[in-house]
């Protein structure tokens, strides 16, 4: 009796790490509380592939909001990186870009909404680049904290556009929220309001 009970316990323990991993994977892929992820999964869109870590066999795709480094999206491009932004943010960015372009400044979005695994991938890459988790955290937020994952942030490019946004973005409610990221904008005030001072960096801000 005692013996067979113990072997049952051992078997249960052996299974547990796998079960936990599977549950954790399911939660991170579909479990965001804002409902945006749920909507995309519900329409049969990105499913299994986005539950996988990024590997050569499961690379980042447009469905992750992926924008290759050095590239930019037109502000009205119909891709998940833009379509899964907060609609008010996307509208404000389009309006601001139209105003900038009327003044001869071209605006692209170098990053918008990102899947959680995309954000994790960026954070891991930043740890490699900056040499420590502490330094990486100044530049790349975790998947749980990133305003890109919730669809509440855009990175604008290129330099002239970021400069234009720093001067006129607040007319559209858009504010630079991290002092060290000249390109990162969020809806932070009413149109025409005064932007609050940015947080020092992603490690300080939330
Ligand atoms: Zn950003």
Automatic annotation (TrEMBL):
Keyword DNA-binding on entry: no
Keywords: Signal
InterPro entries per UniProt: DD-CPase-like, VanY-like_core_dom, Zn_M74/Hedgehog-like
Residue span of region Disordered: 31-51
GO terms of molecular function: peptidase activity
Positions of transmembrane segments: none
One Pfam family in the UniProt entry: VanY
GO biological process: proteolysis
Gene3D superfamilies: 3.30.1380.10
Superkingdom: Bacteria
D-alanyl-D-alanine carboxypeptidase-like core domain mapped to chain residues: 84-162
Signal sequence segment: 1-21
Protein name in UniProt: D-alanyl-D-alanine carboxypeptidase-like core domain-containing protein
Originating organism: Nocardiopsis aegyptia
């Amino acid at each position: 009796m005692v013996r067979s009970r113990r072997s049952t316990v051992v078997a249960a323990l052996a299974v547990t790490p796998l079960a936990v991993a599977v549950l954790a994977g399911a939660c991170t892929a579909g479990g965001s509380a804002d409902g945006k992820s749920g909507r995309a999964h519900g329409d049969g869109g990105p499913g299994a592939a986005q539950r996988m870590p990024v590997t050569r066999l499961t690379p980042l795709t447009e469905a992750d909001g992926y924008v290759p480094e050095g590239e930019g999206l037109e502000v009205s491009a119909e891709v998940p990186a833009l379509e899964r932004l907060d609609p008010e943010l996307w509208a404000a960015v389009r309006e601001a870009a139209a105003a900038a372009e009327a003044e001869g400044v071209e605006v692209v979005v170098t990053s918008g909404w990102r899947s959680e695994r995309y954000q994790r991938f960026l954070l891991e890459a930043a740890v490699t680049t900056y040499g420590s988790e502490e330094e990486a955290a100044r530049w790349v937020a975790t998947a749980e904290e990133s305003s890109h994952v919730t669809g509440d942030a855009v990175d604008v490019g290129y330099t002239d556009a970021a400069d234009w946004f720093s001067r006129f973005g607040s007319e559209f409610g858009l504010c630079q929220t991290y002092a060290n990221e000249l390109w990162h904008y969020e809806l932070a005030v009413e149109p025409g309001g005064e932007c609050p001072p940015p947080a020092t960096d992603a490690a300080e801000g939330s």
